[in-house]
Amino acid sequence: MADTLPPDRTDNAGKKRSGKSGKVADFRYKRSSQQGKASDNRANAKRGSQKRGSAANCDNDVAFAKGSNNTNGRRNQRGVSRARDDGRLRKAGHPDKGHRHGSGVQHHKSGEAYAALDLGTNNCRLLIARPSGRDFTVIDAFSRVVKLGENLATTGRLSDEAMERTMSALAICAEKLRRRNVRLARSVATEACRRATNGEAFIERVKRETGIALDIISAEEEARLAVLGCHILLEAGEGPAVIFDIGGGSTELVLLEPGEKIPRIIDWQSVPWGVVSLTDTIAKVGVGGSPGREARLARYAKMREVVSESFAPFAKRIAEAAGHDDIRLLGTSGTVTTLASLHLELPHYDRKAVDGLIVPSGSMRDISGRLSGMSRAERSELPCIGQDRADLVVAGCAILESILDIWPAGRLGVADRGIREGILRSLMAAERQGERSRRSLHEARGDDPRNRAAG
C-alpha cells in the first residue's frame, strides 16, 4: 500500500439509522463559509524503510464466522453498514527494536479517485486514493485533532467549541474532495456521534453546510472496517489472532479465526473507553487532583481497573484461545504508533518506520509504565508526543496494558492504518464486483462490449 501523506500541520485542537446504512453519496460538495486553513506537509520522511507490497487483495472482505458474537450489549448499535454499488462503482529483524512486515506495490495510471473520511472522537481523517493493481495509491490525505468528544463522557453532548473545531476541519475535507474530483466516497462517524444526545443534529448540520453525508456506523461495523484496513500486517503464524483499535471514545477488540486468508471474525467486543472518554472520566474520580507521582500512578491504576472490568466478558470468552502458544496481536491506533515511535527512539514521527513494525510486548509495557508516572509537562517534551497527545497517551497506555493482560502475546504488531483503508478496500471491491457482474451479464446476452470494440 502506498504511504499516506503526513498529517496536516495546522492541527487544532444524525439521525440514528436503521436498516441499511453505508451511504455512498453524490458528492456535490458545498464551499463552506468557514475559513479553514490547511497546509499539507509533503516532506519526505528522513528514515528510509523497505517498500511494502500488495499482499492484500482488495476483493478480500472481512466475514463474521457463524456463531460469532454479534451482540455485545452495547447501546446505540445499528446494523452493519456496507458500501453500496451505485451503478458506476468500482520477517526476521532486530530482536530488540522490532522488525518490519509487508511488501511493494504495483502502480498504473487511473483518473478515478475514491475517498474515505473517518470522523472519530478525537480526530478527523481523510484519505483519497486511486486504484493501483489490487491495491491503491494515496493521492491526498488530511488529519486533524478536533477533540469532538471533549467532555462528552461527563455532559452527554457535543460542545459548541468541539463542533466548531470539527466543522473547520470538515470544510477542508470537503474542499479536498471537490478539488480531487472524487467519484465515490464514504464518510463515517463513530463513538462520539453514537453517544451524544445532539449527535444526529450535528450530522445534519455537516450535510447542510459542507455537503458531506456522514454515516453513524455501529461499533460492529467500526471493528470490521478496522480489521479490513490493517489485517495484512498481522505477523505470520497459524495461531489465533486479536486485532484491536484504541479510539478516542471506544476500543474494539476482534478475535480472528486462525489460518484464514480472508479474515473471519469469531468474536468481538466494543467498550466505551477510548483515550478521550477514559481521560475525561477518571480525571473526575478524585485520584487525579494531586500533581504528585503517587497520585498519577493511582490514577493510572484506576484507569486499568475500569478498562479491565469492561473487558472481562470478552476475556472470559477468549481465554481458551489465549492459552495457545502461537497467539498474535496487532494494534491500530495513535497509542500504539506513538509508543512504537518511542521504542525506536525516533526524533519525530515517521510512518514508514512504524507501520508494519513488530515490537516486543514487554517494551510497550515498560514505556507505558514510565509514561504513567510522568507529569504532563514531562510527557509533552518527548518526541512524537507533544502537546496534543500529552494528556491522552496515558489512557491509551492503560487500555493497551489491559489488552496485553487478557491476550499475552509476546510481540505486538503496529499498524498506522485502519478504518479509512478498510473503507477504500470496500469501495474498490464493490466497484470490481459490479464490473464483473455487468460483464457476465453482457456475455450471457452475447453482447460483450470488448467483442464489439475488437470488431
Short characterization:
The chain has 15 helices and 12 strands. It is an alpha/beta fold and about 450 residues long.
Helix content: 25-40%
Low-confidence stretches: 1-59, 70-97, 99-110, 285-289
State the CATH architecture of one domain. Answer: 2-Layer Sandwich
Shape: globular
- How much strand? 15-25%
Top CATH class of one domain = Alpha Beta
Order of strands in the sheet with most strands = 1-9-8-7-10-12-11
Summarize model confidence as the mean pLDDT.
Answer: 78
- Overall structural class, as computed from helix and strand content, comes to alpha/beta
What's the order of the H and E elements? EEEEHHEHHEHEEEHHEHHEHHHHEHH
**Alpha carbon gyration radius:** 21 Å
Number of strands: 12
| Main beta-sheet annotation | 7 strands, mixed
CATH topology of one domain: Nucleotidyltransferase, domain 5
Q: Helical element count?
A: 15
- What is the CATH superfamily label of one domain? Exopolyphosphatase. Domain 2
Span between termini: 38 Å
